[in-house]
Amino acid sequence: MSTGLTEMETPLRAILDRRAANRDLPPYRAALRHEIAAVLQGFFDATLPGATVADVKRVGGGASKEQFFFALTHEGETQRYLLRMDPRKAITETDRARESLLLDLMQGIVPVPRPAWTDNEARYFPQPAAIMHVVRGVTKPSVSAQKVSGLGTWLGPDYRDRLKDQFLDHLIAIHGFDWRGRPLPGFEVPDADAKQAARWTLNYWREIWRIDEGETRPIFALAEQWLLANLPDCAELVLTHGDYRTGNYLFDEDTAEITALLDWELARIGDYHEDLAWVLMQVFGTFDENRTFRASDLFEREEFIRAYEQRSGRTVNRKTLHFYDVLSSFKCYIICAANGSAAARSQHNHQDVLLTFLAAAAPMFADDLVRLLRQGEPA
Amino acid sequence: MIPTIDERLASIVRSLSEVIVPHLPEDASLAREQAGLIIGHVQIIRSQIDDAPAYEQAERDDAAALGQALLAEFPADRYGAAAMDALKQAITLTTSDVRESRRAINTAIEAVIQAISAGTCAASKSRLSSIILDFEDTRTQKDRKWFAPFGFDTI
């Protein structure tokens, strides 16, 4: 079912067409460990003869992938790997090949997991899959300090001080990636006009909303029209991460070193304000006992914007940032109210109960849209 | 009703919590997570089930009130007869299905928003935005309060 919102990156158009085409497939069942072990062994029998798979363990958490750790023994050496496999329908629709390509290119620029094998066409696995080398680290302190409230990860003052500079420097390094000098096959550049970057990303989200038959509400409809009428010019096209925030990187608990930036599947060439607004989303941050907000539990809002400007040399355009603030809440509303619910409704995911639980966060994003549209653009 | 729905839900929670979860293997992380979510879900359902029909009726009634406000503000002869007529019909639709009624009204409101946004009158767009924001400000606060037991919200 295509709804005519065709102006977006061609590979993303194909991903959304796949989501639409898969809507009527039969229910998806979470894979059992012995089934995954057999599939993995079959894959390695074909691609690395003599290798043996053992110790397959499911990884908890995550609403977008089925993940398993396993040990692979080959020529007397044993190494641990992570299998990331798409369910039939996830909370977002993405592409394993694009993610693996980026992870290869970002080696040595920022810390990222190293891809080992990719089966993007699901030739061996039941669904598209990638196998990654295992990286040490945690996404949140294993002994978490008292968190006041909210959905974001609470790091606490010690980790906050030790992680914030790395967090910012890695984001600036991603935005500084020389994508013109090192082209990204399969990625298209929104440079037909100055508004194309914003239009492409907005169209992607509008289209996935329609495919997943999100139930409209007045504030959502108003926000959609506001976004269409206020597309900003992009001053500089950069590589954006797409889901940059605490919770999407691993860090070493002893040294507080960020060991890997995760979840690159929404990366594209676009406007750096899109990443900045995502970092600044209230839902990914924390409020302390004084109601002070910290984005990703690292920076207060103005502190983050100023630090980004000082260290990157870029200017943060407040009107553009406001557009992407609205777009971020619009995206989160779609993810919770449409994408997750559609995956659960169609029984195409292994975590239906998690997805319907997360859908309860949608009113927060509807309220964010009210607040942001009422606040209006900065002068 | 014997047993009551609450008694049945309570027994599901207890069985899951005290019989099933303790027997799940320690490394069955997904199963343990999902069981925890099911328990949480069912407990919230227990606390909300009696009030759910009134909540859904209020959602529908708030949508209808917004629709009436739009009809009063934007006469059909000046702002697109088709969208306004559809909104009027959606509000007056006779059905016992409050969800269907809410959906129909919100879909009609969306069409009105699109029609006015496509126009050239800045004053109309500003008035439209003001009406929607006022109504949705109230509605989203009710929704946030309703879903607060899920623990995401800082409300």
Write up this protein.
The complex is a heterodimer of chains A (379) and B (155). Chain A has eleven helices and eleven strands. By secondary structure, chain A is α+β, with helices and mostly antiparallel strands. Chain A folds into two domains: 101 residues, 2-Layer Sandwich (Phosphorylase Kinase, domain 1); 238 residues, Aminoglycoside phosphotransferase (APH), C-terminal lobe (Aminoglycoside 3'-phosphotransferase, Chain: A, domain 2, Alpha-Beta Complex). In chain A, β2 and β3 form a beta hairpin. The radius of gyration of chain A is 21 Å and the shape is globular. The model of chain A has no long low-confidence stretch (mean pLDDT 91). Chain B is mainly α and 155 residues long. Helices cover 75% and strands 0% of the residues of chain B. In chain B, α1 packs antiparallel against α2 and α3 runs parallel beside α5. The interface between A and B is large, with 40 and 39 residues.
How does the SSE layout of this entry go?
The complex is a heterodimer of chains A (379) and B (155).
Chain A lengths: L9 H12 L11 H15 L4 E8 L6 E9 L2 E9 L10 H10 L9 E5 L9 E5 L22 H20 L20 H16 L6 H12 L7 E4 L8 E3 L6 E4 L6 E4 H8 L6 E2 L5 E2 L6 H12 L5 H28 L6 H7 L3 H14 L4
Antiparallel strand pairs in A: 1-2, 2-3, 3-5, 4-5, 6-9, 7-8, 10-11
Helix pairs in contact in A: 1-5, 5-9, 6-9, 6-11, 7-9, 9-10, 9-11
Chain B lengths: L4 H16 L8 H20 L3 H22 L7 H12 L5 H20 L4 H26 L8
Helix pairs in contact in B: 1-2, 3-4, 3-5, 3-6, 4-5
Labels describing this entry:
heterodimer; A: 379 residues; alpha+beta; Phosphorylase Kinase, domain 1; Aminoglycoside 3'-phosphotransferase, Chain: A, domain 2; 2 domains; five-stranded antiparallel beta sheet; two-stranded antiparallel sheet; 11 helices; globular; B: 155 residues; mainly alpha; Aminoglycoside phosphotransferase domain-containing protein (chain A); Aminoglycoside_PTrfase (chain A)
